[in-house]
Hints:
This protein is of the alpha+beta class. It is built from seven helices and 14 strands. Strands 3, 4, 7, 8, 9, 10, 11 and 14 form an eight-stranded mixed sheet that branches.
Amino acid sequence: MLMRWLRRLAVLALGVLSVWLLVFVVFRFTDSRLPWMVALGVTYGIGAYVVLPRAVRMGLKVLQRKHVPAFTVTGDGLPGDPVNMALIGTLGQLEAAFTAAGWHGADPLGLRSSWRMTRAFVLNSPYPTAPFSTLFLFGRGQDTGFQQAIDNSPRKRHHVRFWALSLARVENELGQPSFWLNTDRPPDDEPVLWIGAATRDTGLSVTRLTFKITHATDSDTNAERDFVISELVKAGAISDVTSHRAGETLPVAKVNHYVTDGDVSVATLKT
């Protein structure tokens, strides 16, 4: 209990230090050299994209010491989408399953695709293969991902990211820290466990902790998990659907702003 409170005090002190740095160092420095509005914009940029992400990442390391995560993380080390589904099969089977369900893969994230996404978002014009931001699990970004637009709009979509994990590791290490901390990607032609994080984009927002501009997402990831599974079932692409509770590795809790019951729907991809 004492160590828990000490960790919380350390995180509180880190937050206070970050605010002090932005207000009394960064803003004062820029305000003395730039117009007030420009100084405020520069301070926002430094805070949202430099200071606060690093402060939150440090805080998470303190609070989650020896904790096995039940969620993905962003490039800044912030909590991302909860893990809520897993499919067993090869990459080809995975792609065929979502194609049969009428879903699309995501374009690689780059300058061209980002610009096209920005333009489509502003004009509300269709972009069925819009790129995903990169989230991390097992020490790497998602291996693949699929999406289905809502009302043919780039602002709203169902989407799921997947990370491949060797079935041998699942059999031997499920529920252990090494299961989540593995960084090796198995070969594409090998039957693997595709660990998935499914969420539904609903519009535009800013992140709670660092105020970056991003997609707004529906908090009910349980409903999104069930929707994705139902889409694959209707397409005849999966079988043997079960619900798995991975003990303490997937607790019933809020993850970021999401609400998750900790259940992971597991299914086998059909050939």
